[in-house]
Please model this.
Amino acid sequence: MVTLGSIQISKAQKAPQLGKDSLDEVIEAMTAEEKADLLIGPGMPGYAGLVPLEGEPDVRVLGAAGGTMAIPRLGIPETVFADGPAELRIQPKRKDDPNTYYATAFPVGTALASSWNTELIEEVGKAMGEEVKEYGVDVYLAPALNIDRNPLNGRNFEYYSEDPLVSGEIASAYVRGVQSNGVGTSVKHYAANNQESNRLRLNAHVSERAMRELYLKGFEIAIKDAEPWTIMSAYNKINGVYASANEDLLTTVLRDEWDYKGIVMTDWFGGYPGFESIQDSVSDVVAQIEAGNDLLMPGAEKQKAALVKALKEGKVNEEAINTSLKIILAYIIETPTFKGYKYSNNPDLEANAQVTRSAATEGMVLLKNDNEVLPFTNKSGTIAVFGDTSYSFIAGGTGSGDVNEAYTVSLIDGLTGAGYTIDKGLQTAYVPFVEKMTAKEMKRREENGGLLSDVQRIPEMPLDREMLAKKAKASEVAVITIGRNAGEQHDRKITNDFYLGQDEIKMINSVSDAFHAEGKKVIVILNIGGVIETATWKDKVDTILLAWQAGQEGGNSVADVFSGVKNPSGKLTMTFPVDYHNHPSAENFPGFPAHDPSEVFYKEGIYVGYRYFNTFGIKSSYEFGFGKSYTTFEYSDLKLSESTFEDEIEVTVKVKNTGKVTGKEVVQVYVSAPTNLADKPSEELRAFAKTKALKPGKSEKLKFTLKAKDLASFIDEQSAWITEKGTYTIKIGASSLDIQLTDDFSVAKDITVEKVNNVFDLDAKMETLKN
Ligand code: BGC
Model:
């Protein structure tokens, strides 16, 4: 009690309130326990759709991954976080509740990025954010933008590219779109989280140059351009220090150099070699918070006990604690929850189904189309459809990136809906086979970790030669779908995943032989989330459409491209190699010891993806930036605003549709830079854009502005981004190898664009690849 004249006021009534009193006053009033409650999440009540366990609080959004705790005494409400990134992952059904809570399964990250269309991604983000807000979620745990260092990473489907500019620009657009709804995002997983094998214990050895030029760059772009509310630190260690306790990463680079103001949260149980290893030891929790990791997710009682102890014994830097508390409180004030938003639990799923249907078509990449088999406009005969996945299309990957959608349109349904007639005999044979095999596989997954189980492909249904000969006579064309799925916690396998299985090779061979003998064409649809081998079988078929995991409207999206309603305009954001071992990272993936890797050495340095293939002259099956169209484009009128670079240079180029149908073209600006101060890739993507839909004969002038930072490389010896003096070549490409126009400009003297800190010291000797 305090006494004011004759009035007595109880202290309880006087507790400062969030939103009314200053953040400092609220923090000042907090007990050690309350501070721990705010800095450490509430655990996972209701996670993965579990009904809260006894003693746990009731959950607002069933299946949400976590959030921040309420402290009612100080007017602090709980806030809710849910996955991401192909849309919300929440439980669609709740106990004693007739309503459903389905979310729209949008195309996976790779599919979205393959559109190279940032305006489109922003629209998709807007639609996603509407579902986030209307389902009562405050922070959407997406986007995910780690670099595709190696094709086998089980989570590449969630990510965007082997190139950081593509990753950063796509993520920025996504964040802008989602956050335009007044909800937050969490850009993840910061950083160098490029594999799933042993992700909780893995030490990634990465040079500072590779960190800055590749693994941080996309984050830097997204953070500076789009100001995400939160960042999620990665599970792995970087040069010996867990990402979530890495001061170089979370404070020196993120806050000091990039001026990031939002929350950093750990990945779930990140910073420990395993959930069971979380102890009430003060050092782990303190190391994370002092390094700049504000929020420990999902939060465990042992962590709280450790933090309370550290606070009471003065064993934790109070300034770090107060900074994190302030950041979290400032976030809470901005949330829909704090603002009292009355969410409807009724987002516009119908409208969003149209958004995903259309977005998926723009990310599809036409890899091959001999004799213009596609678009296939003949609807008079029947189509023979092969491949298990045709009958059970894969909308997206597994793990936390999975979405509980109400339905997935199969290829069969999509084609039928578009007015094609499907061979009924094949359908009658495939449907029960696929159902039986899928049920078996789902049971296996359920018994092997459920959401986090590995994924095994179901075998292809054996095809009889005589039957095939009959089908080839009776149908107009053959369609074969090759499907792949993967997800969190497991990397993909080389055999029977990256390389096709024997059953798949047999299917492609026998169907192609039978149909080609009758003069009929064979179309392959790739319903995959990551790169597979294509070089050994692509010549056997006429057309290959890379549809990716195209979301819940997948079958309809493919049908739109198949029929020509939509012209595919996606291009590859990663290399499709001839052989897995062509990737330099193959020697160091997933690390050492091979059966249980705890160390991985990024010996390829900056030579990831096309930076390696192009520089070292290694032939790929389909190169970075490649993708065909139903029309053709002509590039002309390349102009540079000056021949000597001062502060920036403007590049303009004209692109004309010279074919017969409307189409969009992805235009890529590569730059070759001088190499006196350091070796560099033969060229690097420095800008890109997509034309609008150009009618035949129409053209568009595209303009790109390149600043010194866009041209700079990280020069280790000087701890600086430097744009070197010398001659630069601008290469306007339809792909990274299909360079249409070039021109040169010069830089008169070295420009130090940015001096930075010397960070990420290696903790073990490592030579990196040099050109
Ligand atoms: C994943 C994160 C995800 C989190 C919450 C982790 O296992 O790595 O991407 O956001 O779980 O579900």
Summary: The radius of gyration is 27 Å. Residues 65, 83-84, 141, 188, 267-268, 400, 488 surround beta-D-glucopyranose (CB under 6 Å). The chain has three domains: 16-334, 364-565, 633-755.
